[in-house]
Amino acid sequence: MFVKRLRLGEIDKVILTIVCLLCGISILFIYSTQSGGQFGSQNFALRQSINYMIGFSLLLLFRLLDLNQLRLLAWPFYIVSVLVLFFLTIAPESIAPNILGAKRWFSIPLVGSVQPSEFFRIALILLAAKLIFDHKEKYPNNAIQEDLLLLGKILLIAIPPSLLVYQQPDTGMVMLYMFAIAAMLGMIKLNKVVVIIGILGPLLLVSIIVCFFLFKPEIIYEDVIPKLKPHQQERIIGWLDPSDNRNQAFQSTRSVLAVGTGGLTGKGIEGGNVYVPEKHTDFIFASIAEEGGFLIGATVILLFFLLIGRMVEIGSKTSDTFGTYICAGLALSLTIQIVQNIGMVEGMLPVKGISLPFLTYGGSSLFSNMILLGIVMSVRNTYAYQFFEKVN
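The structure corresponding to this sequence follows.
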């Protein structure tokens, strides 16, 4: 009876297969990184296996929700998430320790570290999708006043909590929030003036920064970078000029070395001999590329491509645009997260504290991503049985 209520036969087999493969890759390479002894007797592979069991349970539970229930949960989930983010800023170090200059996690006995900003992404995407859906139902026209009102609503729910996350500091997560919102807004027909302003504004800012860097680099180094937080300064300087800033670029250069020495087929499991700090967490792809080589690294990227593609397909098939907005936000957010993580591992982008979805060791990132996939599956269930007829 319990299995029937879970409707296991209706689970999306494409997503399930991809996640199971990523699960095996994650546990295997985490086990390999810890075999070198740099983490002592800690068994991260076993912990990740437990994390995955919890994650699959969350996925199965959230896929049982329908879109109407997700609409009802959007505001309560958002309010609770914001309150938790605020409490993190004032919580004592006994429960919210400062780790390497960052205060992002709650330390909970018997549970471990919990990162609220990961779960706020879910709340923000759900509420933004609801606001966009409700607004377009009420104002179907593309008048500039109506679109500016919608943007005002979105910014009001996004900016204040994002500032709390930025102060942790966690610039990478804020970036994921913004891309998720941009994807959802991109799914609706906004007034052309609003679209032009929204596109030209960021492009103009990026162009100015690039021009200064190419023709007046002293402005970047002396006026812009010093205004950033110390850890941000180190990461950007290490990325822009690694040869003259070896200490700041140490993690990145070691990662690039690990990837480069992997070759086509890699050094084999437990064969990695390049030391990379945090190799089992945010830099897990360095271990995959070193020990599995180009073939396994390319396989991982292909799995991500298929997963994102399936999410986009599900979002495009649903007749409820609320589900479409959700899938669009999740798909672009995960895509940017994957590109940023692999880009920093290969030295093409600055180092940021962004995990590689489903592969990095840790509970919060894995749990939130499994919940996100459960929500995507709930969108699929909505259209798959809309007319009492299964759609593959």
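The chain has a mean pLDDT of 84.
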